[in-house]
Amino acid sequence: MRTRDLGFLLAFSTALLPAGAWQLMCFGVPPGLAAWFPLVFIFGVVPWIDALCGDERRNEDDAAAAVRLEHTRYFRVLTALVVPVWLGLLAWCTARFAMLDSVPAQLGWLMSTGVIGGVLAINPAHELIHKSTRWEPLLGGVLLTSVGYAGFKVEHVRGHHLHVATPEDSSSARLDESVYAFVPRALWRNVRNAWRLEAQRLRGRGRSAWSWRNEMVAWYALWLVFMAVFAWAGGLRALGFFLGQGLIAAATLEVINYVEHYGLERRLIGPGRYERVTHHHSWNAPQRYTNWLLFNLQRHSDHHAVARRRYQALRHHEDSPQLPAGYATMFVLALVPPLWRRVMNPRALACRVVGEAGTF
Question: Does the keyword Ubl conjugation apply (predicted)?
Fold first, then answer.
């Protein structure tokens, strides 16, 4: 086992951040400040660790070694372990939320849990739902349902990957579009598109869209079970926390989608036909530490080129569009649209010029 492979264990470190925040409260830090500690670490400390750890641009060049890497069980175990870790953390955070009695503390705890859900629940779910085994997509669906965004399982695989970098895609941000316009549009259209895709699939098989064979019906039934459990265990306050953290987690995901695809376009080559998706149609970032935290999500260009490739085998492409910093920095930058446009518009336009010239 190589050192860089062990680094993916750091993905679980985000689960420790709420415990760190609670410990700060025990040491006397006001809850209204301590509850925000996870966000301070993710968006304030992670970029500095990225700078210290440097970039990871190496690829597995030996074909046999690449095949062995793809089939190493260790990497599958890590993503599977996320399910009990996240569900346990969510229950713990909900119980602690009930103990907080100030609005700043409650808001900080809710925001922190939601963002961690976007990192620790949705990101591994994204890896799992792409896989061809029976059990991995199921685990991914459970993770997505725990944050109320089960439609992502359907729309992302059968919608986003087909339409990425085109006007038909709900998760590809247009040039000059602000994150505040993009996120509500993406949340609404992705859920709607998931229902439409499932209805079309079932009608094509001569079945009713309103059946247990409809993934959306099944997953949202499980979501109602989650809601009932949280309401039974902690009342309306726990139920509200469960729903709130899910909305924040889903919004966190869509901010990352905004970063991953902003302003990039595939060329129209015929009526309703676009050029093939390649590693030139998503933004890439090589920061080693964040790629450990996110199971190589920042190698997003290669993910769209070969969607079934497992995270440990994703490749870095120097000729892909490159972000100027890691996701934590770009997330914060996206929240300031004038600054975002100043940094990203010239890069996106340059990628378009190169793409039109066909000289990537």
Answer: no
Domain definitions of the chain by residue range:
3-357
Residues sharing a CB contact under 8 Å with residue 330, sequence separation 6 or more, in sequence order: 259, 285, 323, 324
Residue 359 has pLDDT above 50, yes or no: no
Backbone angles phi, psi at 135, to 5 degrees: -80, -30
CA 33 → CA 186, 238, 244, 252, 255, distances in Å? 31, 21, 20, 21, 24
Encoded tokens for 160: 């986003």
Got the DSSP string for 187-229? HHHHHHHHHHHHHHHHHHTT--SSSTTSHHHHHHHHHHHHHHH
pLDDT at residue 321 tops 80: yes
Sign of the Cα torsion 219, 220, 221, 224 reads positive
Query: Is 354's pLDDT higher than 70?
Result: no
Closest listed residue to residue 42, CA positions, set 283, 332, 343, 340:
332
DSSP letter (8 states) at residue 55: B
Nearest to 46 by CA among 24, 13, 20, 69: 13
Query: What's the whole-number mean pLDDT along residues 301-307?
Result: 95
pTM of the complete model: 0.94
For 45, the token pair is 């400390």
